[in-house]
């Protein structure tokens, strides 16, 4: 986990430098000023990299060292349960249909986008609450 945190700190600094350089160059050489799509995207990328780095750094302090932090560790030292997955969930299908309709709606017509939002919201809510009711309720 320490290596992951370091990588994201380095990426955050790199993206910050690139964002500043990109903003300055487009501000000086573009006739309309700073480019309105790339500069905010680079700032957002910088923020995401720093956010992941901070979360990883906090997780390192709160948890024990994992097998990836031990230089003498074997592959089987990190084996075990990786998560809990529902074997026959329909929620990913509805969420994917919603996302596909949203992208299609942007290209073909905004009324399709509304149906995509409905399918997507239904799928996400079903996905989040699927272990709260029915056969898998605890």
From TrEMBL:
<dbReference type="Pfam" id="PF12270">
    <property type="entry name" value="Cyt_c_ox_IV"/>
</dbReference>
<feature type="transmembrane region" description="Helical">
    <location>
        <begin position="37"/>
        <end position="60"/>
    </location>
</feature>
<keyword id="KW-0472">Membrane</keyword>
<dbReference type="GO" id="GO:0004129">
    <property type="term" value="F:cytochrome-c oxidase activity"/>
</dbReference>
<feature type="transmembrane region" description="Helical">
    <location>
        <begin position="7"/>
        <end position="25"/>
    </location>
</feature>
<comment type="function">
    <text>Part of cytochrome c oxidase, its function is unknown.</text>
</comment>
<dbReference type="GO" id="GO:0022900">
    <property type="term" value="P:electron transport chain"/>
</dbReference>
<keyword id="KW-1003">Cell membrane</keyword>
<keyword id="KW-1278">Translocase</keyword>
<protein>
    <recommendedName>
        <fullName>Cytochrome c oxidase polypeptide 4</fullName>
        <ecNumber>7.1.1.9</ecNumber>
    </recommendedName>
</protein>
<dbReference type="InterPro" id="IPR021050">
    <property type="entry name" value="Cyt_c_oxidase_su4_actinobac"/>
</dbReference>
<comment type="similarity">
    <text>Belongs to the cytochrome c oxidase bacterial subunit CtaF family.</text>
</comment>
<keyword id="KW-1133">Transmembrane helix</keyword>
<keyword id="KW-0812">Transmembrane</keyword>
<dbReference type="GO" id="GO:0005886">
    <property type="term" value="C:plasma membrane"/>
</dbReference>
<feature type="transmembrane region" description="Helical">
    <location>
        <begin position="93"/>
        <end position="125"/>
    </location>
</feature>
<comment type="subunit">
    <text>Associates with subunits I, II and III to form cytochrome c oxidase.</text>
</comment>
């Amino acid at each position: 986990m320490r290596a992951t945190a370091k990588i994201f700190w380095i990426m955050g600094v790199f993206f910050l430098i690139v964002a500043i350089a990109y903003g300055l160059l487009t501000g000086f050489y573009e006739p309309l000023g700073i480019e309105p799509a790339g500069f905010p995207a680079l700032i957002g990328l910088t923020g995401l990299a720093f956010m992941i780095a901070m979360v990883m750094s906090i997780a390192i302090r709160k948890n024990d060292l994992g097998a990836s932090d031990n230089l003498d560790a074997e592959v089987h030292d990190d084996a075990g349960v990786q998560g809990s997955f529902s074997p026959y969930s329909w929620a990913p299908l509805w969420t994917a249909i919603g996302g596909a309709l949203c992208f299609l709606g942007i290209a073909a017509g905004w009324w399709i986008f509304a149906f995509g939002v409905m399918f997507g919201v239904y799928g996400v809510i079903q996905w989040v609450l699927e272990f709260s009711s029915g056969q898998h309720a605890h």
